[in-house]
Specification:
212 residues, single chain, 0% strand, mainly alpha
């Protein structure tokens, strides 16, 4: 049997994937992972006691918007990477938007008269913030990797990095329900560091965890 004949025989009965299958699979994995992370947060770190009043402040929503935007773009990147050969240029460039916006707000806060740049940047939880974001991202990692293994990623390191970005940003969003820090310089440095670390872990893990 010729090679072309063998390929035709193996692929002859293949049918297109059901419409929306990729989105449903990723949504399921992400939901399960985030639910598990939320339960871990709820029963270990706990929600911040003043959450009911904090949600009325613009600073709380700035933090939420930053991490949620990165998570949304991370999900878009993961969805692209789950399809063999899909282009990731657009969501990749859009990642700069929330970073630049938060950077501008952080610069204004630091440059304000009598601003204490050290306090704005270090807050009270700088030592643990990034590490907790990474730790809380593990259940989300598991859910996203589970979904991606059922799909068709081909660039495994990049796909793993995108999954790490999504897991880290989603974890940071949930962590914000516990963390009392709202200063833009703090969020820019320590929340971003946690997300970057999760992205790096995803890139490393993706090489073997997403192998077909």
């Amino acid at each position: 049997m010729q090679t072309d004949d063998l390929i035709a025989a193996l692929s002859g009965d293949l049918a297109p994937a059901p419409r929306g299958m990729v989105g449903r699979k990723l949504a399921t994995g992400l939901f399960i992972g985030m639910a598990a992370t939320f339960l871990v947060l709820l029963f270990t770190l706990r929600l911040r006691p003043d959450l009911g009043t904090a949600v009325y402040g613009a600073a709380f929503w700035l933090k939420f918007a930053y991490t949620f935007a990165l998570a949304g773009l991370g999900l878009w990147l993961v969805e692209r990477q789950a399809r063999a050969g899909a282009n990731v240029t657009a969501p990749g460039w859009l990642l700069l938007a929330p970073v630049l916006l938060l950077t501008s707000v952080a610069a204004m806060q630091i440059s304000a008269p009598e601003a204490d740049w050290r306090s704005l940047t270090m807050g009270h939880t700088a030592r643990v913030c990034s590490l907790l974001i990474v730790a809380l991202s593990f259940p989300i990692f598991a859910g996203v990797f589970w979904a991606m293994r059922a799909l068709a990623p081909t660039r495994l390191t990049l796909a793993g990095a995108c999954a790490g970005l999504l897991a880290g940003a989603a974890s940071a969003t949930l962590y914000g329900l516990h963390c009392p820090e709202v200063a833009a310089p703090f969020i820019l440095v320590w929340y971003s560091l946690g997300i970057i670390l999760a992205t790096g872990l995803g890139a490393i893990a993706g090489r073997w965890a997403l192998r077909w």
